[in-house]
What does this fold into?
Amino acid sequence: MSDVYITRIEKYLPNEPVPNDEMEMYLGKINGNDSKSRGLILRNNRIKSRYYALDKQGNITHTNAQLSALAVKKVLNPDIDINEIDLLTAGTTSPDALQPAHALMVHGELAAHPMETMSAHGTCNAGMLSLKYAYLAIKSGEVNRAVSVASETMSSWMHARNFQDEIDKRLEIEKNPYIAFEKDFLRWMLSDGAAAALLCNKPETGKLSLRIEWIDVKSWAGELETCMYAGSAKSGDGRMVGWREMTNDQRALESVFSLKQDAKLLQKHVIATGIKHLKLVLEKYRLDEREVDWFLPHLSSMFFRDQAVKGFEEANIRIPEEKWFMNLPYIGNVGAASALLMLEEMYHTGKFQPGQRILVMVPESARFSYTYMLLTVV
It folds into this structure.
């Protein structure tokens, strides 16, 4: 089995950073009213700026496939032709279409030769699942070089225009234009962007590479109910009702294709279950967490950093805060791309040194699945 290395990593963030007080210029106002929950949510998540693939009129400036292709081109330039790549994998929460698959759309944007592609669907873990497929393909010897890209274009999904049918229907039925907190919550949490990594079966001469030691993924869906969802509604007993079971009026009333999250369920389980998985990982790989030089946790909110620090202390997991790195406050929560965006920044700011070990954590709240990845700088 071959060793696998991330030899290059690059990002593409659309347009200029958007500060908190300009968010509704881009995302629009639902029913023409300021959001009542925006201030509270932003105080808790402590995000100060983010990136949108929109202009101030709400027009889309980049599709998801375009953002992904731009990140891929950046990671290959100036000396590698896309036609030299054996495999393209792509993960996202927010593809441009239900079909064709997202990786095929990225492949089309790149106008590359025939190659194997793989699309990873999900929420935050989609980027890590994409990366793991590329990792396993190289480790098994099937391919020598692969590009894995993770991306999101959440802003156009969160735009006020996508809630207008619900507003109109509620006004008609009950004279109440209220949009549930579970929908409004995510409008102030999410960001756009893409990051791409080049994976090879040997390190690149003359520059640092990151050897992937392992990628461990686990789902806890057998024990926990759905927390974040789209294309469905949640019944009173927790059962998910898919859009195909609904009439057009029901879909409009529930704005069923909006992304929703149960914030109470998130707070109850996301850190506790992640710690449970980390304990299993430390035992499985006989990893002493004191040997970790950098800890890169993808968290949707800085609120959860405080919870994670406390949970680690209570679980006797010893990763001191000075080893933690997050860029959430100024990059935003870019979902599936967040882990690669943290790695990209650390790599290019020169904080990684040969011999260091990096532990990456990615929780996915959709139905609670988690990824841990260990890297060694070589």
